[in-house]
Specification:
Blueprint: H1 28-54, H2 59-64, H3 68-78, E1 83-85, E2 91-93, H4 100-111, H5 116-142, H6 145-156, H7 170-185, H8 189-200, H9 207-223, H10 231-239, H11 242-255, H12 261-268, E3 272-273, H13 277-289, H14 293-314, H15 319-334, E4 335-336, H16 342-345, H17 354-366, H18 368-393
Helix pairs in contact: 1-5, 1-6, 1-18, 3-4, 4-5, 5-6, 5-7, 6-17, 7-8, 7-9, 8-9, 8-10, 8-11, 9-10, 9-15, 14-15, 17-18
Length: about 400
């Protein structure tokens, strides 16, 4: 198989004339990929429901009103302004949470009779479906239908993929990110910039989408030697960071420190970017003293993610995917606080699975039983571990 160039593919500014101009791909293969994704996520939901019933817990509350979900629904209900104070100078302010997701929840409750928790689940489930379709569509352009379907399946079977079925923001960010990358790849710069704005309003690490758009635009300008650069490219590039920057500056203005206010809020939660010093300290504690299963799994998942990124580079993936994934990985590895949440932060980093999808696809051609065994094992791990996280672990996700 010929792999894409490590740089941005040539048709970045204008789609080929023979290409269909519809933005969303159609066809039985896309429907099949979505069906596979839906099947694995429904299996995960059923497992959580069974475990919740066995432990006398409420499934809806576990999925729609757990941990960060409660902060988002509170913002959707009453707006910003909630702060909790704890020992050791921990100050948890809702300003740490970006506004797009609670805004979507509020919109759904305005036009439907759903409660805020149910609206959060609807938004997340729809976003997860949109993300799966986007992952398939992008992978089809880069590789082939079979690899694209396997990639969607693997994304739905990540150890923390249960988050895709909960009222969390990762499905929304992934949907915006993948379609922004698809827009970059097809030369739709205004779409790319606009989706990057929304991604920047979804989560702190949504800045990775803007970084990818800016890197792709910069390469395109360099490739053209600055000549005949379409205005849509300049506009898309200028738009890309505005969502993330706008919210950070808004929080700064509200806290009386324009440039540092948002980061002070994050420090109150114990979150900061320290180039991995805090993570290394926690890993030393984990290796020396041992700790809960969740922490050990987190260490393994993050280590595998670093390896997969090296393989992604070796596969010569397109520049926007490398930048987007690299920034997400850097933020995850280099950030301190809430070590157990790092796998969740990596859920939007779907390109990490491309080397695995290629390997599974090649294996399926030569040794189909081995491929089925691998996928089956991953499915079992995903369902079992996801159910454990939600119903038994009782730790922040």
């Amino acid at each position: 198989m010929n792999h894409p160039s490590p740089t941005v593919p040539a048709p970045l500014t204008e789609p080929p004339r023979t290409q269909c101009r519809t933005f969303v791909p159609r066809g039985p293969t896309a429907a099949r990929a979505l069906g596979v994704f839906a099947a694995v996520r429904i299996a995960g939901l059923l497992a959580v429901s069974v475990a919740a019933h066995a432990t006398e817990q409420n499934t809806f509350r576990l999925l729609g009103r757990s941990w960060d979900s409660r902060w988002y629904t509170a913002i959707a209900t009453d707006g910003y302004g909630r702060t909790l104070h704890f020992e050791n100078a921990v100050v948890q302010s809702d300003l740490a949470f970006f506004p797009l997701y609670p805004g979507l929840i509020r919109a759904v409750t305005t036009i439907t009779p759903l409660t805020y928790g149910a609206a959060g689940l609807v938004v997340s489930w729809l976003a997860a479906g949109a993300a799966a379709l986007g992952i398939y569509s992008l992978a089809v352009r880069l590789y082939d239908h079979r690899t694209a379907t396997v990639l969607v399946l693997l994304w739905g079977l990540l150890p923390h993929s249960v988050i895709l079925s909960m009222a969390y923001t990762e499905p929304v960010l992934t949907a915006l990110a993948v379609w922004a990358l698809y827009a970059v790849h097809t030369g739709r710069w205004l779409w790319a910039g606009s989706l990057a704005v929304l991604a920047g309003l979804a989560r702190p690490n949504g800045f990775a989408v803007a970084a990818a758009v800016l890197a792709a635009a910069g390469y395109e300008v360099w490739r053209r030697r600055g000549r005949h650069v379409p205005h849509r490219l300049w506009t898309g590039a200028l738009l890309a960071p505005l969502g993330w920057a706008g919210y950070v500056l808004w929080v700064g203005a509200r806290k009386g420190d324009l440039l540092g206010g948002y980061f002070a809020v994050q420090r109150g939660w114990g979150s900061r970017f320290d180039f991995g010093a805090g993570s290394l300290t926690f890993v030393r504690h984990l290796l020396r003293d041992g700790d809960k299963l969740v922490f050990s799994m987190t260490l393994v998942i993050v280590a595998v993610a670093v390896l997969l990124y090296a393989l992604l580079v070796a596969e010569r993936a397109p520049l926007p995917l490398l930048v987007y994934t690299g920034v997400l990985l850097l933020i995850t590895v280099g950030g301190s606080g809430f070590f157990e949440s790092k796998p969740r932060f990596l859920l939007p980093a779907f390109p990490l699975l491309i080397p695995v999808a290629l390997a599974v696809t090649r294996t399926a051609k030569a040794r189909p039983r081995a491929a089925y065994l691998v996928v089956g094992a991953l499915a079992g791990l995903s369902v079992a571990y996801g159910t454990y996280l939600v119903t038994i672990a009782r730790m922040p996700l």
